[in-house]
Amino acid sequence: MNVEGLTPFRVVARRLSMVGQGNLSPATISRWVHLAGKAAKDTIEIAQEFSPLWFGVLSIDGKSIKVGGIEHTLLLAVDIKSQDIVHALFVTQESYQNAKRFIRDIREKIGYPLEAAVIDLRPGLLRALREVYPCVPVQACVIHLVRQVKKRLPKLKGKKGSQANRELRAIIHKLFFSPTLDEALASFHTIQISPETITSLKI
């Protein structure tokens, strides 16, 4: 049985008990998972031992995780083509110092052949990439950009600026997801906003 995602330990304990594994408690399942995790190789050991085949483009992001009610961050780097987890690091916060440690591990300990990176453009992570890989191009993650557009150009539901916001969201969305460079540039050039329109946008 796999223990993954949001499967509660009590559910796993009950299912294993039903198939003749004894009267197991959720605490026992938690202890087994903890021991299995401690025995597993980390991403640096895997890279050094197995020399995986990677394709040079990384998606890097941080995921907030609460431990004992305190928020921490799991930094993840994924090879976009193979979908391999190249590196993972659990840190207290998504700071510049932790980001730089993470990026340096990728270069110096894992030896990833980085040709391009896709990130959410957080200043600390961007700065770390620029310092460790100064010649590697960095692209903003489109998903994160879409979230920012929705946040900064809300629907407003009929209020002043709602139509302008809707029209600009549509143009920006077309720009982000254009299949060719020419179409993207065409969408980009249509974004010509008068000062009056800018003042009506709730951004």
Q: Could you explain how this protein is built, in words?
A:
- With 203 residues, the chain is an alpha/beta fold.
- The chain contains nine helices and five strands.
- Strands 3-2-1-4-5 form a five-stranded mixed sheet.
- Strand 2 and strand 3 form a beta hairpin.
- The protein starts with 8 loop residues before the first helix and ends with a helix.
Which key terms come to mind for this protein?
extended; alpha/beta; 5 strands; 9 helices
- The tally of strands reads 5
* Helical stretch tally: 9
- Spans of at least 5 consecutive residues with low confidence: none
Report, as a whole number of angstroms, the end-to-end distance.
Answer: 48 Å
Q: Largest sheet, described in full?
A: 5 strands, mixed
Shape: extended
Helix content: 40-55%
Task: Give the amount of beta strand, in percent.
Answer: 15-25%
**N-to-C SSE series?**
HHHEEEHEHEHHHH
Average of pLDDT:
86
Strand order of the largest sheet: 3-2-1-4-5
**Alpha-carbon Rg, integer:** 23 Å
Class based on secondary structure composition and strand pairing: alpha/beta
Compact description:
The protein is of the alpha/beta class.
